[in-house]
Amino acid sequence: MTNLEIGIERLLNRLIDSLPSFISAILVLVIGIWLIKFLLRVLTKRLNKGKIDSSLTNFLLSILKAILYILLLLTVTSTLGIPNTSFVAVLGAAGLAIGLALQGSLSNFAGGVLILLFKPFKIGHFISSSNGVEGTVQKIDILYTTLKAKNGTTLYAPNGPLANAVINNVSDNENRMAEYVIGISYNSDIDVARNVILKTLAADPLVLKDPAPVVLVSALGDNAVNLTTRAWSANGDFWPTYHRNYQLIKQELDKNNIGIPYPQREIHVISDGPAPALGAE
Known about the structure:
By secondary structure, this protein is of the alpha+beta class. It folds into 3 domains: 7-115, Helix Hairpins; 125-169, SH3 type barrels, CATH 2.30.30; 175-256, Alpha-Beta Plaits. The protein contains 7 helices and 8 strands; from the N terminus they run H-H-H-H-E-E-E-E-H-E-E-H-E-E-H. The chain has a 5-stranded antiparallel sheet with strand order 4-3-2-1-5. Helix 1 runs antiparallel to helix 2 and helix 6 packs across helix 7 (238-255).
């Protein structure tokens, strides 16, 4: 028997010996793929019923799918008798290197998960945060939130700092309170000024009757008595109502001769004796 024949015989023997493991690996692969697809379908239905944001659902399912297929690959190679120690070590080192390189992105990812889960704001809400972000929310992605600023520019806010900041959600409530601080002179009648302001607000159909507007003395300033006025309106009518009534209140106060003073100083000259005559030495 030649060396070639001996080699072929040994190869055939090895193939025959490994045939059960090969068949087992194929069965594990087929069944594993079916189980992964079944599990992903079930989870997709569950997550959709839970009203979780679609972008978060897709991202989590993608991560889970990748993890499950890696585990399936390790199981198949183990069934074939291939040692997985080196493979696992390579995956661990690669994961560590990627994690160190993407620390900021991982923080943004965690922030995006929190925002999409707890929903402190939604698309269309106007928000401002303690880290200086302000605008109307246009889009919420897993890493960044896109906002439209008041001046029309687009802001891309990382979700990590945004999730850890104090969020002032202006649009989350149906109604919103406007506050006007109006100073009147000390010579003016406070009750008259209060009635003028309340009548002005009552004439505006966009100002809510409940809760009713109020006018309170908030401070006795250096030059004026400050009246703080609070009035409620629908959130969508807030800014037009706010600016219009500021103007109308000023005009009505002028009609009723209620002055709004400007900062001024009075200087009193005190002399101990008569002023010297002109030309005197």
